[in-house]
Amino acid sequence: MARLKVGIVGAGSISELHAKGYQEDPRAEIVAVCDRDEDRAIQRSLDWGARAYYTHFSEMLENKEIDAVEILTPHYLHASQIIDALQAGKHVSVERPLALSIEEANQVVQTARQVGKVVQVYEPCLFYKPLLDARNLIDAGEIGKPTGIRISMTVARGQSDTWDFASIEDEASLWRFDPQLSGGSPMLYDVGYQTFCIALFLIGNVEKIEVWRSETPIREGLKLDAPTVAMWKHYQQDCYGTMTLNYAPERKLRTPYHPLEATIAVEGTRGTIDIIRSSDPTQLEAPVELRRDSRKVAYGQRNTAFEDSFVRATRNFIGSCLGEEEPLLGANEARQLLLLTLAYQESSRRGRAVNLQHG
C-alpha cells in the first residue's frame, strides 16, 4: 500500500508533537517541511527525514508528491492556506481554528465539498483517552443526569521558552497579542475554543454564553486575557457550565510543551467525574476520577496520555485521507465551534450575555 506523503507548514515547537504521529505510523511519511525561517525548516526536515524544505507555502503546494498538508501557522493564515491546499489537490489537517470568521469558514466548507478532499481541524483534546473514558462513563449513566460542568484552565511556566510571554526570547509567540493575526485576545482559541470543544463533547450544544474578562500586564505593551470567567447554558438541558482562565507565571510545569493544564469536573444527579489534562507527565493525580456514593474510583494512566492524544489525532487524519474512517472534527463541526468561540469573544467585548440561535 502506498504511504500517505505529508508536508508540514509551520515548524515551531508544537510541530514536534504533530510530527510524532506520522513518524510512528507506517501508513504515512513526512516528505516536506515549510517554514519562513530557513534554518528551522532545514533542521526539521533533517529531524523528520523529509526530502524537501521550503520557505514559501505556495512552492510546497507545487510539489506533486505531497498528498496532504498539516497547517501549523498563525491563525490569520488558516483559511487561505486551507483553500489553497485544497485547490492544489491536497488533504488538509489544520490547527484550531478553522478560520477567523463564519464567512471564511463557509468558504472552506464549500471548497472542501467541491474538491472532495478531507479537512480535519486538529483537536488533540478529543483524542485524550481520559476524556473519552469520561464520556463513556457519562453515557453509561454513572453520574446520572449531568447538571453542570466546570473547566479550569491554568497557563503556567514550562521548562522551555514556549509560551514564556514575559521573555524576550519568545518573540515567535507574540503574534498572539495582535488581534489582526490571532483573531482576538491571546488565549481566545487556545482556551476559549478548547473549552467549548470539551463542553460540547461531554454534554452537548450551548445556547447562551456570558464572559467576564480581565487583563494581566506581562511585559511592556503586552497583556494576557486573564483572569477570565465564562458561564454558559447547554441547549435544551438544565445543565450549566463555567470556565476560569488563570495565569500563573510563578507555577512551573515540568513540560517542554505548552504549559497549559485543564481540570474538568462534570456533576450529575448521581455523582461527579473529575478529569485532568496536563502537558506535565509528572502530575500525580489520576486523569479520571469517578465520585459516587462515598466512593472514589480512579481510571487511566498518568504518564503518556497527553502526547498520545496528538498521535491518535494524527492517526485519525491519516485514516481519513486513506478512506478508512471519518475525521472526528471535520470542517462542519469546526464551524460550529468557531461560532461558539466568536460568541464568547463578543460577550467579553460587549459585557453581556450572547444568545445563540439553533435550528
Describe the structure.
The chain is α/β, with parallel strands linked by helices and 359 residues long. The protein has two domains: 4-124 and 311-330, NAD(P)-binding Rossmann-like Domain (Rossmann fold); 126-300 and 339-355, Dihydrodipicolinate Reductase, domain 2 (2-Layer Sandwich). It is 32% helix and 29% strand. The chain has ten helices and 17 strands. The protein has helices spanning 15-23, 38-48, 57-61, 78-87, 102-115, 129-139, 179-182, 188-202, 305-321, 331-350; strands at residues 4-9, 28-34, 52-54, 68-71, 91-95, 119-122, 146-157, 206-213, 216-219, 222-224, 228-234, 240-252, 260-268, 272-278, 288-292, 295-299, 354-355. It has a nine-stranded mixed sheet. The protein has a six-stranded parallel sheet with strand order 3-2-1-4-5-6, with helices on both faces. A two-stranded antiparallel sheet has the order 9-10. 47% of the residues are buried. Keywords: Oxidoreductase. This is Gfo/Idh/MocA family oxidoreductase. InterPro entries: Gfo/Idh/MocA-like_OxRdtase_N (IPR000683), Gfo/Idh/MocA_oxidoreduct (IPR051317), GFO_IDH_MocA-like_dom (IPR055170), NAD(P)-bd_dom_sf (IPR036291).
Q: Classify the helix fraction into a percent range.
A: 25-40%
CATH architecture type of the largest domain: 2-Layer Sandwich
N-end to C-end Cα span? 43 Å
**Main beta-sheet annotation:** 9 strands, mixed
**Beta strand count:** 17
Indicate the CATH class of the largest domain: Alpha Beta
* Number of distinct helices: 10
Return the string of H and E elements: EHEHEHEHEHEHEHHEEEEEEEEEHHE
- Give the uncertain stretches in residue-range form: none
